[in-house]
Amino acid sequence: MSSFTLSESMFFRENRLPIKVLLRDPEIPFSLHSHDFYELVVVVSGKGTHLLANDSRHLQEGMVFFIKPGTAHGYADINNLVLYNVLIGRKAMSGHFSDLSEVSGFQEVFLQNSGEIPLVRMNCHQLAEIIALVSAIKEESEKQDYGNGASAMAYSKLLQLLILVSRFHTSRKGGVFQPDQRLEQVIAFMEQHIDRSLSLEELVAHSNMSASTLNRQFKLSTGWSPVDFHIHRRIAFASTLLLTTNLSIERISEKTGFSDANYFARQFRNHMQMSPRQYKQLWTSPRP
């Protein structure tokens, strides 16, 4: 099957940092094509088939993969598939290769030479962290004309993204964490109380674990402490309310258990790398 090639000149501005983030919402069927730049693909939601020259594989939420220049690929059998495409010019990828190659998992995901394209699979919490970082890269890369260190910020966040994907890939393979049904019960309890804060003492009482065991298991499973994880889930709920309702930020703050709107805004920025208003604008503004 023949393919066509997309070039850097179609996406990157001259003399600017060659990074561009495209939100494909929804993705459409796309015949085999290649690029002369790199592309990191994040599957946000939905399902589809990823076509390769001599293969195909099923895609679903939480998958991330990396396409090198010259690799033919495409999409078919689309079912509400939403993707982030992080386009990375050759210049942007070459600067820190020697340092990044020392990161566990980086060579396997980003420097594969066998022709295979590894699928990095993430849980919902890891995916939320990746999406927040990609959104921040998108925001910075789109305001490069205005200076203020936007290019440097976009590049620094790109390096964070590459390292984070590498770490998640390694942790998945390592199998350090063994699922604990007690954790699932605690998380279900958190979801039932998404509208208020929970103390560590409450979570310990509900978990039938000691505080140290609960903290250790949460860290292994999610990378968060139990209390921080619950704050993160409340922020995720707030994000949904921002996109699906016309409630004020103050009212959303109340509905997610943050009695002080300023504290809510600080926590939102800590977890989502942007303010609530910026988040709403990013996802609801008309796209070209």
With helices defined by DSSP (H or I, 4 residues minimum), what is the helix count? 12
- The first-to-last residue Cα distance is 30 Å
Low-confidence runs of at least 5 consecutive residues: 174-179
Q: Specify the helix fraction band.
A: 40-55%
What series of H and E elements makes up the topology?
Answer: EEEEEEEHHHEHHHHHHHHH
Supply Rg.
20 Å
User: Strand fraction band?
Assistant: 15-25%
Largest beta sheet, briefly? Answer: 8 strands, mixed
Rounded average pLDDT: 83
Structural class: alpha+beta
Count of strand segments: 8
Shape designation: globular
Short recap of the structure:
With 288 residues, this protein is α+β, with helices and mostly antiparallel strands. It is 47% helix and 20% strand.
Give a description of the structure:
- The radius of gyration is 20 Å and the shape is globular.
- Strands 1, 2, 3, 4, 5, 6, 7 and 8 form an eight-stranded mixed sheet that branches.
- The chain starts with a strand and ends with a helix.
- With 288 residues, it is α+β, with helices and mostly antiparallel strands.
- About 2% of the residues have low confidence.
- Helices cover 47% and strands 20% of the residues.
- Helix 4 packs antiparallel against helix 5.
- It is built from twelve helices and eight strands.
